[in-house]
Design brief:
Layout: E1 3-5, H1 15-27, E2 33-42, E3 51-61, E4 65-71, E5 76-79, E6 82-85, E7 93-94, H2 98-115, H3 117-121, E8 128-134, E9 152-154, H4 161-171, H5 183-191, H6 201-225, E10 231-236, H7 242-255, E11 260-264, H8 267-276, E12 281-284, H9 285-296, H10 306-327, E13 335-338, H11 348-354, E14 363-368, E15 386-390, H12 398-405, E16 425-429, H13 432-449, E17 457-461, H14 469-473, E18 475-476, E19 479-483, E20 492-497, E21 506-514, H15 521-527, E22 530-539
Parallel strand pairs: 1-2, 4-8, 8-9, 10-14, 10-15, 11-12, 11-13, 13-14, 16-22, 17-20, 17-21, 19-20, 21-22
Antiparallel strand pairs: 2-3, 3-4, 5-6, 6-7, 18-19
Helix pairs in contact: 6-7, 9-10, 10-11
Length: 540
């Protein structure tokens, strides 16, 4: 039995074609392929004009190539005006030349195959031909110079369809030869492909994004409630919108004509906020210290020993900032907005306050999360600021938020209506190489299959870069792995370490070099950076 595509004819298939369908299925060898009712519309290309039509049957002999068969049932004839049929109880009707139909279809299909990627890559040209089937008629001789008897299969020929189809192949001079491996599969992929028009992941991301933006707008309303307070500490867990609100507060103050400084701990966050800042300055704390010292003409002597360096960053740098501001009082600001406040040491806060034109009374907003105090140095609660709290996660989809909640003691708190999102992907590799291969396949799926822009994807590692096998790989397929910057080039995917990436986010996050442990807040913070899609690759 031949392989039939589809397995059964459509319900509206004419009786004559159903009969031929059954005969071809039963009578041809099992390695032959028959495609029924192949309609085609081939757009114009550099090598052809636009073509459209339909072939009743395409019959593939994997050793010789394919033929197109046109089926004409009932009473059929031809006179000087052309071909005609006489339906039962009706007057005769003009019909298209069946031989020309089959011939045109065969040539059109062949031209299409010639441009199909497998045939071009392997430089394969298919052998092809055509024929006509009259299942209700007896044909004793050649009917037309354009349609020799050898190209016709009539009612009697159906009794030995294997021999009859072979005769049509021979009449088209299709040599018996061994076609390249993969020819039959490529033939099917080109002419009868399987596909699933499920909603793409990128479309789902865009849909869910509209809902998350709505929730975020609601969070921004908190700033309206706090407008009359000049000194506020806003506390919130991962995904509650702290950085978003910090940036929005800086914008509002700048629009009111204030000189505003947005201050944070991580360089990456400072780079990101600077790329979208509107009317306010952006610095990470130590670059602020260095810049002020340089403008004040104060020497900046960075020590060589590691222990001395830690003391320099923790104690000397803020002291130099205080000294610089004494010499440059005009460099002070009307308002300072601090993000990642939990990472600021106790000795830094006097220097931060001195950045204000009115220390201790000027506008100071601090956004912080004690749960992300991985350095154990937060002193925000001791600053005497008006407390405010962000309780709802407005960054993550429900599935990501609930997944992240498993890493710590805090439950996922989402507003009603938060998008469900897609399931979190968890993959495990027995070797580091297997983990890298998991990441490569994920990138191929997201970029090639799901059409997600590369600038919406970030790879996060819980290790320093020098210990990451993904970073060491450099390239995964056609994609180059680069260190995170606010913008990227096509075919590049950005990668960052989890701690410097705090405060940032991405539509798609691949968390690799995973070292998850129960209650591990760094892991939870890293996983929460994903807005819509999260994949976790673990080394077993």
């Amino acid at each position: 039995m031949a392989r039939m595509i589809p397995v059964d004819p459509d319900s509206d298939t004419p009786r004559s074609e159903r009969e031929v369908f059954a005969v071809l299925e039963e009578g041809l060898p099992e390695d032959w392929i028959v495609i029924h009712s192949r309609r085609f519309f081939l757009p114009a290309s550099a090598n052809r004009k636009r073509e459209e039509g339909e072939v009743d049957f395409l019959v593939l002999d994997p050793r010789r190539g394919f033929i197109a068969l046109e089926v004409k049932g009932g009473d059929v004839g031809r006179d000087q005006d052309g071909w005609f049929t006489i339906p039962s109880g009706a007057t005769r009707e003009q019909i298209k030349d069946p031989g020309r139909q089959a011939q045109h279809g065969a040539h059109a299909i062949n031209r299409y195959l010639a441009e199909y990627v497998w045939f071009r890559r392997n430089r394969v040209k298919a052998q092809f031909g055509f024929g006509v089937v009259f299942p209700a008629s007896k044909v004793g001789r050649t009917l037309d110079p354009a349609l020799p008897r050898e190209l016709i299969i009539d009612q009697g020929d159906l009794e030995d369809i294997n021999e009859s189809v072979g005769r049509v192949f021979n009449a088209n001079r299709l040599d018996d030869r061994v076609l390249p491996e993969g020819f039959a599969d490529a033939f099917i992929d080109a002419l009868a492909p399987s596909f699933n028009l499920a909603q793409s992941l990128w479309i789902r991301i865009e849909r869910d994004e509209r809902e998350l933006v709505r929730l975020t707008d609601e969070q921004v309303g908190i700033l309206d409630l706090l407008q009359e307070n000049k000194r506020v500490a806003v506390k919130g867990g991962p995904g509650t919108g702290k950085t978003l609100l910090a940036v929005e507060k800086a914008r509002r103050l700048a629009r009111d004509g204030k000189r505003v400084l947005f201050l944070c701990f991580q360089k990456l966050l400072a780079q990101h906020v600077k790329s979208c800042a509107e009317g306010f300055a952006v610095k990470h704390f130590h670059s602020c210290c260095f810049g002020m010292a340089r403008r004040a003409g104060i020497q900046w002597e960075f020590p060589d020993r590691y222990d001395d360096q830690q003391k320099f960053w923790g104690e000397t740098a803020p002291e130099l900032l205080l000294a610089s501001l004494e010499k440059l009082p005009g460099e002070r600001f009307d308002a300072v907005i601090v993000d990642e406040g939990q990472d600021f040491k106790e000795l830094w806060w006097p220097a931060v306050d001195s950045l204000l034109r009115e220390p201790r009374t000027g506008t100071l907003y601090v956004f912080h999360d004690l749960g992300q105090d991985v350095f154990g140095r937060s002193h925000v609660d001791s600053l005497g600021l008006v407390p405010a709290r962000l309780g709802f996660n407005c960054r993550n989809t429900r599935r990501i938020a609930e997944f992240v909640a498993t890493a710590g003691d805090r439950p996922a708190v989402l507003k009603p209506g938060a998008p469900e999102g897609v399931e979190v992907t968890e993959l495990t590799g027995a070797t580091h190489r297997a983990c890298v291969e998991h990441v490569r396949k994920l990138l191929h799926r997201y970029v090639v299959t799901e059409n997600i822009p590369t600038d919406r994807i970030v790879i996060l590692t819980l290790k320093p870069f020098e210990y990451s096998k993904v970073w060491e790989a450099g390239h995964l397929g056609n994609i180059e792995i680069v260190e995170w910057t606010p913008s990227t080039q096509p075919n590049q995917i950005r990668m960052a370490s989890a701690i410097p990436f705090r405060g940032l986010e991405a539509d798609v996050v691949i968390l690799c070099d995973d070292d998850r442990r129960a209650g591990h807040e760094l892991w939870a913070s890293a996983a929460s950076r994903a807005r819509h899609v999260l994949a976790v690759v673990t080394y077993s």
